[in-house]
Structure formats: C-alpha cells, structure tokens
Amino acid sequence: MAARALDGAAVAQAIRSEVAPSVASFTARAGRPPGLGIVLVGDDPASDIYVRNKLKSAGEAGLRADLKRLSASAPLEDLLALVEQLNHSESYDGILVQSPLPDAMGPDAERRVFDAIRPDKDVDGLHPANVGRLVQNRATLVACTPSGVIELLDRSNVAIAGARAVVIGRSDIVGKPMALLLLHRHATVTICHSRTADLPSVAREADILVSAIGRPAFVTRDFVKPGAAVVDVGTSQVTDRALVERLFPAGSKRRDAFERRGALVVGDVHPEVAEVAGALSPVPGGVGPLTIAMLLKNTVAAAQARAERTRGWGGTERRHGRERRLAAR
Ligand code: NAP
Fold first, then answer.
1. Which of 33, 114, 231, 301 could pair covalently with 126 via S-S, beta carbons 3.0-4.6 A apart?
2. What pTM value is reported for the model?
3. Residue whose CA is closest, atom 19 of ligand 1?
4. What are the CA-CA distances from residue 203 to residues 4, 80, 117, 209, 287 (Å)?
5. Residues of the chain with confidence (pLDDT) below 70
6. CB within 8 A of 70, min separation 6: which ones?
7. Pocket lining for ligand 1, CB < 6 angstroms
8. Which one from 7, 124, 232, 268 is the annotated catalytic residue?
C-alpha cells in the first residue's frame, strides 16, 4: 500500500495563517511590522532561490523583509560589520545569514558570523546561546527546518513520544537540533552519519526516520521498517539523466518536470520507499515550505519577545498560544 503523504505545504499554510493575527497585532501596536534582515553573500543560484522564496513569503505574511547583498569577494570583516549593523537596528527583529558562505571567506566564517548575531535576533537558532538553550529544552529560537519537521509530525498525527527515531545526518543546522527536538518529545533517538556501520539496519529500527544528508535517493526500501513515518529533508539538484530515468518512470510528473527544465530537485529518499513506509514527506512540497513558515514564526516570536523586554508589553498572547498547544498534545 502506498504511504500516506505528509503534506508539508498544507501544514506550512496552516502555520502561516496562525502567524497572521500575531503579525497584525504586533504591527498595530508597534507601528511597524516585524522586521527580518536577510543577508546573502555571493551569487550561488540555489541560495538565490531560497532567499527569494523567504522574501516573498515574509512579504505575503505582512512582515518587513529586506535583502542585504554582499559580493562573493567581500571580506569576512564586511559581513561581520553588516551583522553588527543589523544587531543594533531597531527595524529588524530577526537576522538570517544565508549559508553556505563563499569558500573565500575562510573555513570558520560561518561559525564566526553565527556567533556574531545577537541571540535574540537569531531566527535560525544557530547562535551557541540558542543551541545551549535547545540542549536544555528551554529554547525560544530553534533552527527552522527541524522545528518544521516536528510541526509536520504533530499535525499529521504521528506519535513521537515512545517512538524509536533515527536521524541520518549530524549537521548543526539540521541533524543535531532534529535529534534534540525528538528527544525532548520523548522519542528514543539514534543519530547516524557517514561513519555509521550498517546504516540500513540501524535505520530499519525507526518508527520515525528523518534523513538529512543531501544524497539523492540514498534511503532505499531496505532502510525502512514497514509502516514507519519517513521525513525527507534532503534536497539535491540532479542533472544526471540516467539517475532521473532510474527513479521516475516515463510520463510521471517528476520525469516531465526534468524534461522541461533539464534538472530536478530530488530528496534523500528513494521513491520506492513509498511502498514500504506508512507515511512519507515528498520532495518538493514536504519540509521546504515548513522551513520558511517556521522562519516567519520565529521572526514574529523574536519581535514580540523584544517588545516585551524593551517596551514592557505583556506576554499574554504568546503564553496563551503556547498553553493551548501544550494542552492539545
Ligand atoms: P551537511 O551539513 O552537508 O550535513 C550532511 C550530513 O549528512 C553530515 O552529518 C554527513 O555525515 C551526513 N552524510 C553524508 N553522506 C552520508 C552517507 N553516505 N551516509 C550517512 N550520512 C551521510 O548538510 P545539511 O545542511 O544538514 O543538509 C542536509 C540536506 O538537507 C541537504 O540536502 C540540504 O539541502 C537539505 N536541507 C533542506 C532544507 C529544507 O528546507 N528542505 C533545509 C536545510 C537543509 P558526516 O557528519 O559524517 O560527514
């Protein structure tokens, strides 16, 4: 039987509609919308698309989102100076520096930049202070992709507490925070990576399998316990016709898309997994839209938290929302 689709686009739409009243009330009260400063360095085409989508969604949600661009040859000091400017700006509640940064900025550039963002404006949840809070399960700003995956599981009625969860990938931005969020929701979690021995048999123990490695169609049916919920975070741009022909039959939507564009975004999970899994998130239309929805949510949360601190606003609205969500679990 074909797996149930975990519809990230629908869940993202629901989150955006829930965020809308908070955006409206913040804007009315503060006299300005919540603000997001996005920094893009260089001209990586994939980053360009991601950033454009973020700007568009933020604008549609009533946020102010501005793009600050630096050339690929800009020195790291210029980027750090720009971050510092955004840190001090009254107009921006959230700051996002799109990764990856150009190699020319040096091997530790990302770390230095993420360290430089004010933790209360760090809507990507990558500052060590926010990561530490996540480890202690008292985070306010959490990395958008993994928190989006939790929303997807919750709103698709996939039980997390007591489940065996396996996360493939251990990056700071996806794998590690994903594992922590699942742990805090009482799953028993295993993290796998490129040195994991006999990965398929470890993955096969999972009731919830999350793959975030960026290897197209790597997770085949032998990785998946029948009935498991499988979340495909990976996105790889594939131009290899032979691979696309192996994965998608002639006449299918995906194959047609490849014929039109000469390239296709493919997830980590092989299409054959749909025959084994109980639920599966598609690529595209799975985790991608959720990442953006959570970015909007984090920006509004950061704006409200800052207003509560600096203007003495009460936190009633936020507290009530949180209590409602906890009660619903
Ligand atoms: P990353 O920093 O490159 O990390 C990849 C991880 O995968 C590493 O931990 C690596 O293990 C592991 N890995 C690589 N090859 C492996 C293999 N053959 N077997 C087992 N593990 C392997 O990537 P990332 O930033 O976490 O992103 C992962 C994927 O998610 C990418 O495709 C990215 O485009 C996608 N992504 C999607 C969204 C979205 O919104 N949809 C958001 C973020 C990321 P080692 O640590 O041992 O090297």
1. 114
2. 0.94
3. 194
4. 19, 40, 36, 7, 20
5. 1, 315-329
6. 39, 40, 41, 42, 78, 79, 82
7. 145, 168-171, 173-175, 192-195, 199, 212-215, 233-236, 287-288, 291
8. 124
